[in-house]
Amino acid sequence: MRKIVVICVMAVMTLTLVGFGFAKWSDTVTISSDVETGNLQTTIAPGGVNDPGADPQYGPGHNEEGKDVASIECVQGEGENADHSLNVTIENGYPFYKPGFTFVITSTGTVPVKIEDIQGPNWQGDLAPFIKVAGWSFTVDNPAAYGLPAENFTVESDENNSTWDGLVEAIGHQQLHQNGTLTVNLEFYIDETDNGQEDGNLCPMNASATGTITIKSSQWNEVGTAETVE
Fold first, then answer.
1. Cα–Cα distance measured from residue 156 to residue 175, given in angstroms and rounded to the nearest whole number
2. How many CB atoms neighbour CB 153 within 10 A?
3. Single pTM value for the model
4. What are the backbone angles phi and psi of residue 64, rounded to the nearest 5°?
5. CB 50 within 8 A of CB 101
6. For residue range 194-203, what is the model confidence (pLDDT) as tens digits?
7. 29-50: string of b/e by CB count within 10 Å (b at 16+)?
8. Measured distance CA(18)–CA(21) in Å, rounded
9. Going by C-beta distance under 8 Å and a sequence separation of 6 or more, which residues neighbour residue 14?
10. Phi/psi at 75 (5° precision)
11. Residue of 203, 58, 76, 73 whose CA lies nearest to 133
């Protein structure tokens, strides 16, 4: 009797082990991934000058006669990176002549940018101390993009910030969407003295100065926020 019991138990165990080896239905799904990065690209282009004829004047200067004495030219750069540079030339200038030019920065990449840093013009030459900022304005024009509505606004200098530093502070961290533009109008004047006072050094004749303005833009999420424009 004991033997029969043992055999039966072993038989059951054998059947149980065989059951674990039975085939089963199964299926497999897969996930494929494709990651692409966008691009960041800006260009700069001339937008005109403020002296197509009669010389514009600053402060005590006047030109009722409509004389065309000095000139300013703003043209696209040359070479491989021509769309990244402009050349501005002022000729036959004199005290209180007020030349101005406009340039347009366009964001052409798929990733939005912010203006991160502006350097210059760092004038060099005998005429450098006599070149002053007369005024400025800029317009931001962004199409609707990235879930945000279109925007268009203009900021102009006033008597408290008509300086280079005032422009740099106002324009800093402004954002451009793809095909968005930043149009900047900048006017200078040649002062009669280096300190703007009668006791200053007189502006020299046959003098010159050179300067370079550098504008850096970076991806929008790594640059601070621009001041609110009302």
1. 17
2. 12
3. 0.84
4. -60, -25
5. yes
6. 999 999 999 9
7. eeeeeeeeeeebbbbbbbeebb
8. 6
9. none
10. -130, 160
11. 58
CB 155 within 8 A of CB 173: no
The amino acid at 176: L
From CA 195, how far away is CA 26, in angstroms rounded? Answer: 87
User: pLDDT tens-digit profile of 24-59?
Assistant: 899 999 999 999 999 999 999 999 999 999 999 999
> What are the residues facing 135 on neighbouring strands?
187
Whole-angstrom distance, CA of residue 127 vs CA of residue 196: 14
To 10 degrees, the CA torsion angle through 56, 188, 205, 120? Answer: -160
Query: Nearest Cα to 215, choosing from 113, 90, 124, 118?
Result: 118
Could you tell me which of 174, 114, 176, 172 has the C-alpha nearest to residue 145?
176
Helices (H), the chain: 2-19, 164-171
